[in-house]
Amino acid sequence: MTPGRPVPPPLGKPLLPIDEAADTIPSPAPAGGVPTLVAAYGATSAVSGLVPLTVARRVPKEDDVEIEIDFCGLCHSDVHATRGEWGAQSYPLVPGHEIVGRVRSVGSAVDDFAPGDLVGVGCMVDSCRECESCLDGLEQYCERGNVGTYGVKDPRNGDSITQGGYSTSVVVDRRFVLRVPEGLDPAAVAPLLCAGITTYSPLRYFDVEEGDVVGVVGLGGLGHMAVKIAKAMGAHVVVFTTTNAKIEAARELGADEVILSRDPEAMENANRTIDVIIDTVAAPHDLNPYFRTLRLDGALFQLGLPSAAMPPVSPGALIRRRLAYAGSLIGGIAETQEMLDFCAEHGVVSDIEMVTARQLDEAYDRMVAGDVKYRFVLDTKTLQTPSEKADA
Question: pLDDT digit of tens for each residue in the chain (392 aa)?
């Protein structure tokens, strides 16, 4: 285990420079033609639920890839965004950042994708491409802010609000399109573009390998991917759970051990046994018992984002064993491609339940209740025909 593994080099260099004086991204001249109207589902307000919408997709430019979407994963962050739980949103809002589909067309400058290719789009569709993070292949940490797949202004395209993958097609710059290896279930690949890379990135940052012991806290959409990926890396995987009901489920996913975190004796027996912990829980919880399970130079990566304050971390727990408490956010484009190739090599995909467009509200309620094993995926063939006028 080697902390701080360098990320893969970025896949592409910027063609459009930043205007240093204005600190903005210059927009290219608009492409000729008429935007395409496509069917979608999204929210018109924080309380509207998900309803049929029509989205206008831009005319592809020379660096763009037009993608016919087949599947889009449902992420808990979609619920927070559409319901306005993360602050004010621009409505109408079409969520979805776990997109898998086939290339329909490519711009004149695109030579790395062709019509018919199976591709994916994850949590971001652009970044400044010029800051230190972007040039290091860490677009997710873009110092000017990456451009999310939905709900944010797109500076390179006239500050239009991005709309996501609960739709039948999307147009994305080639630098943010990922090649999906053939042979995997494309629907089950979709959640890899968020849950997969979110758990893969910290495991690779610590260069987890055979013989290492990885702890996973929580067994939801993120947690089940952490178990699968850590096992594929050769690690001995220990799942921490608060409920007996998750014990058998964790073992079915490949966990070598399951520890009830509310059992003091079981937690004491785990003292100094784990190299790195992936914490996926999005509710406030006490981390100090987990720090005690880490070995010298171990680390706990926080991936879940609680909605309320967490209990304080004891500095002594960190100091006595030179422990690290860290966070991690998805992954850059090159690392996401590395993750997809790794998953193809090891046959790793998400456990999913398919839903239709009309089941989206029910699926959201079930996600909030924790009633999904382990990710929902929207079949975009169930979307309606677009109207003659765009809603978003």
Answer: 556 655 566 654 443 444 444 455 544 545 567 899 999 999 999 999 999 999 999 999 999 999 999 999 999 999 999 999 888 889 999 999 999 999 999 999 999 999 999 999 999 999 999 999 999 999 999 999 999 999 999 999 999 999 999 999 999 999 999 999 999 999 999 999 999 999 999 999 999 999 999 999 999 999 999 999 999 999 999 999 998 889 999 999 999 999 999 999 999 999 999 999 999 998 899 999 999 999 999 999 999 888 789 999 999 999 999 999 999 999 999 999 999 999 999 999 999 999 999 999 999 999 999 899 999 999 999 999 988 888 87
Residues contacting residue 350 through CB under 8 Å, at least 6 positions apart:
73, 188, 189, 190, 191, 192, 195, 196, 221, 224, 225, 374, 375
Integer-rounded Cα Rg, in Å, for the chain is 21
- Considering the entire predicted model, what is its pTM? 0.91
